[in-house]
Amino acid sequence: MKAIVIDGEFGLDHLKSVDRPEPKPRRGEVVIRMSAVSLNYRDTDMVAGTYPFKFPLPLVPTSDGVGKVVAVGDGVTRAKVGDRVLGTFWQSWLGGDFDQAESIGQLGGSMDGMLQEFVCLDQEGLVHAPEHLTDEEAATLPCAALTVWQALVTEGRLKAGETVLVQGTGGISIFALQFAVMFGARSIVTSSSDAKLEKAKKLGATHTINYVTTPVWHPEVRRLNGGRGIDQVIEVGGPSSFVQSLQAIRLGGQIHMIGYVGSKAGEMNPLEILYRRAVVRGIPIGSRESFEHMNRAIALHRMRPVVDRVFPWLEARAALEYMREGKHFGKIVLKF
Questions:
Q1: Which of 136-145, 167-176, 216-225, 266-275 has the lowest mean pLDDT?
Q2: Maximum CA extent, the chain
Q3: What is the pTM of this model?
Q4: What does pLDDT average to over the chain?
Q5: Residue 89: CB partners within 8 Å, gap ≥ 6?
Q6: Are residues 193 and 323 in the same domain?
Q7: Do 276 and 238 reside in the same domain of the chain?
């Protein structure tokens, strides 16, 4: 079988297609023939070698993918041949609190990822894909969708009538907008592109802000929310936007730290968290239990992820370069 690996050194020039033996399932394992993989911002950092944590090479990158089970080992009860399944990012975080980070394997990091024709996973690290979704759509769920669900729903207890600030229009952000709509919440979406903001309105955004024409946007966020601070922030900008997020929330509002597409370094006065009684939490994606809850909601509401562009899977480098350009709206997918 073919696999794409980061080999020898980090960097796009060291992303190679190699031949590997097709895996055979051991007890409790399943083999999946991959159909589609989706990219996350993490994958660009992983390939470049700028991810906060380093993993040994060679490494098959990417964590999000869907495929059909083609073989099962002894004792497998969670899936059968022919089932369409997704791998969980944290392969053994089944539910409850996330307190075992050192011992839970992560796909495309401490374990080989999904960018290979066949993947062998433990049955405990699988969920079934919602039936109404295409392969391209289903492939987007394991990280981007689940991270937002974990933030807004599992941890944030999102309620109808609350207001969510959504930064940007990448994969994470568009899922945040879609889940806000699903729960009857208001949303304020920021972007540097008016064209993308128009697309966000069509998906149900209550208000939009262009942060290029309005670089100091937190007063406008409050104005659009009737002068009141907002309830929850999906923070993907990193330190460069965190200070404004703090100024935009209500007393006791929540900031979900998810990404750092704006910057990885910056300064802030931590007393601002105290003054605003802010709840600030890092979101480590989510457990299998949360994944299954989210998939049931997606199926019930017939929600469809937004796919910006689909590349052939062997054109992974071009897809990663496209992601780095930041022109996408929603998710980028690689099709087998």
A1: 266-275
A2: 61
A3: 0.94
A4: 94
A5: 63, 64, 106, 107, 142, 143, 146, 285
A6: no
A7: yes
Q: Which residues contact residue 216 at a Cβ distance below 8 angstroms, ignoring those fewer than 6 apart?
A: 244
Q: Does 58 sit behind a cis peptide bond, omega within 30 degrees of 0 on the bond before it? A: yes
Q: Is residue 294 part of a domain?
A: no
220-226 long-range CB contacts below 8 Å, 24 or more apart? Answer: 221/165, 221/188, 221/248, 222/248, 224/188, 225/163, 225/186, 225/188
Total count of domains within the chain: 2
Range of the domain at 277: 145-282
pLDDT tens for residues 111-120?
999 999 999 9
Domain shared by 174 and 80, yes or no? no
**What was the pLDDT predicted at 96?**
85
Extract the tokens encoding 176. Answer: 């945040």
| Residue 105: predicted pLDDT | 85
Amino acid present at 288? R
Q: Are residues 171 and 259 in the same domain?
A: yes
Q: Measured between alpha carbons, how far is 52 from 63 in angstroms, rounded to an integer?
A: 16
Question: Are 155 and 225 part of one and the same domain?
Answer: yes
Nearest in space to 3 (alpha carbons), one of 127, 169, 120: 120
**What does the H/E/C string look like for 272-299?**
HHHHCCCEEEECCCCCHHHHHHHHHHHH
194 & 311 share domain: no
Same domain, 75 and 150: no
